[in-house]
Design goal:
By secondary structure, this protein is of the alpha+beta class. It has 7 helices and 7 strands; from the N terminus they run αββααααββββαβα. A 5-stranded mixed β-sheet has the order 5-4-3-6-7. A two-stranded antiparallel ribbon has the order 1-2.
């Protein structure tokens, strides 16, 4: 079983993956380059998205418990000139809000139905994944994709199962057990369609399974890498259904 990094470690990882995003496009003269994994976006669009996301969650954490998402106020000071400067300022705003609140403070979050806590600690955990996946997007667009660090990817798989699967529409297929097996060791067994089916376990019998590095598993779950990037076993349609499920309307 994997262990979620401590709150301070999560904050460091938010900074690290946000820095990785910015460094991947520093010196790229054409910010209009398209992002293959987010084809509607340019590099500029990608960075502006992450900037907006980090400012939004800074506001959500600062607002405390609420039944509604926050209204993000304009920055007190004139926004820094330049795309990357604005991004760096948003990361600092997010980290300041998280440090001020501490890990146990309640706040609004869109995953309330998942069973994942609506706390600043859960926000920090999710924001590591937001920054990590979008850093990969930027690296892919600039031709130098790098694996997501194992500590990020291993926790990211568990976080994805809890949040993305936990807030998806009801599983529309028959009962199935699917295994996710990382090269680093940890495995996850997902029993569907039961609402309490998302759990971590060792290698046990499964109807289908995916094997690969934690980075490849995470990026495949997020739709950044194709299924064929992983070694699969069992019924392929079941695996395709799993990857399509969180996005079903």
């Amino acid at each position: 079983m994997t262990q979620t990094p401590s709150f301070e470690e999560l904050l460091s990882l938010v900074q690290d993956r946000s820095d990785a995003l910015r460094s991947s496009i520093a010196g790229i003269p054409d910010q209009a380059v398209r992002v293959p994994s987010c084809p509607d976006w340019s590099l500029r669009d990608l960075v502006e998205h992450v900037t907006e996301v980090q400012r939004f969650w800074a506001a959500a954490v600062a607002a405390g418990p609420s039944e509604k998402p926050p209204t993000v106020a304009p920055a007190d000071d004139a926004p820094p000139a330049g795309l990357l400067a604005r991004s760096a300022a948003a990361t600092e705003e997010l980290l300041t809000a998280l440090r001020t609140a501490g890990p146990a403070a309640g706040c609004w979050a869109w995953w309330g139905d998942s069973g994942v806590p609506m706390t600043s600690g859960a926000v920090a955990r999710h924001q590591v994944q937001e920054a990590a996946v979008h850093a990969f997007d930027a690296q892919l667009a600039t031709g130098a994709p790098q694996p997501v660090p194992a500590v990020v990817a291993l926790d990211g798989i568990a976080e994805f199962i809890g949040v993305s699967h936990g807030t998806a529409r009801p599983w529309p297929h028959g009962p199935v057990r699917i295994g996710l097996h990382s090269a680093e060791g940890p495995s996850w067994l997902i029993d569907l369609p039961h609402p309490d089916s998302h759990h971590v376990g060792d290698h046990h019998r499964a109807d289908a399974g995916l094997h690969g590095s934690a980075s490849s598993l995470l990026l495949t779950l997020h739709g950044r890498l194709p299924l064929d990037n992983l070694r699969s076993e069992g019924d392929r349609t079941t695996l395709e259904n799993l990857l399509a499920w969180p996005d079903l309307g």
